[in-house]
Amino acid sequence: MAEAAFAPADLPAVGEEALAPGALDARLRAADRPFIVRGLAADWPLVQAARAGADAACAYLVERARDRAFPVTIGTPGGGDRLFYDDLVTGMNFRSAQGPLAGILDGILANADKPDAPAIYLSSIDTEAYFQGLRQDNALPLGDRTPIESIWIGNRTRIAAHNDVPDNLAVCAAGRRRFTLFPPEQLGNLYIGPLENTPAGRAISMVDLRDPDFAKFPRFRAALDCAMVADLEPGDALFVPSLWWHHVEAFAPFNVLVNYWWRDAPAFLGKPEDALLHAILAVRDLPAADRERWRALFDHYVFDNGADVTRHLPDHARGILAPLTPDSAGQIRARLLRSLSR
């Protein structure tokens, strides 16, 4: 008997929030799971332009674009909407190019009705660096955060499940977006690809969510048991907490997403992903007994890090075992740079 088809839309929906004006900041601080705010950005000029049509949205963006080349990802004509690896997982099924925004958007509009249109995607474009006034005219009340703000523009595309280190507030400004989300603990069930050779800087799930091969990826069924779906229309916003996996689909012939990334951590702290790579370099391939000894050290100094770690030491002698400051973080960074440069 043939296996029943899987449809992501059959998954449970992410919960929705109704927030009073000014309540977004507090809700974000309290959140540990994804949530949707319908119409959060409904009054944005960009959203209003998009409601008038793709041509109006493109004109709005072009008018505010800075005079510089924009990076763009272009798939193969007839190759579908999935931006992914090639068949050998050594390269990608798309190429990178750059050009003026007006020309790129003209290409998206010209391909709108073509069934074999290549995927065209401007991904993670720094809003302030590439546009004049766009960030200021389309803003959200994010409190004292200083987020990285990016804009994503393209036709129909699919981006494999991946995670981001910062928290993420994603706003659908034009078209329709679907996020399929998996909790961080589903890492082992998502069949993650290479860490160093990635389509866009983050490791991705190798499973095709639209047509999962359960014979090849059997544990993915367990991931689906924990998955949730968020369908966004123009003006809707989705909060994606740090390290939550998310597969992203853009359904309309023209789509725009604006997102905000931030970390609730001091800027002087290092990047956890750098520590992961260093641990792979220095610890992972040690003999099993050595790894267990290092696991105990990591638990003691990093993951548990209870009061007993330093209680026996005078305050002035605790060094980097005390809560980090910009100065002590700088000392660690300098020591690591000296070590890695040998």
Automatic annotation (TrEMBL):
SUPFAM superfamilies: Clavaminate synthase-like. Signal peptide: none annotated. Residues 114-277 form the JmjC domain. It comes from the Bacteria. InterPro entries: Cupin_8, JmjC_dom. Pfam families: Cupin_8. Transmembrane segments: none annotated. PANTHER family: HYPOXIA-INDUCIBLE FACTOR 1 ALPHA INHIBITOR-RELATED, HYPOXIA-INDUCIBLE FACTOR 1-ALPHA INHIBITOR. This is Cupin-like domain-containing protein.
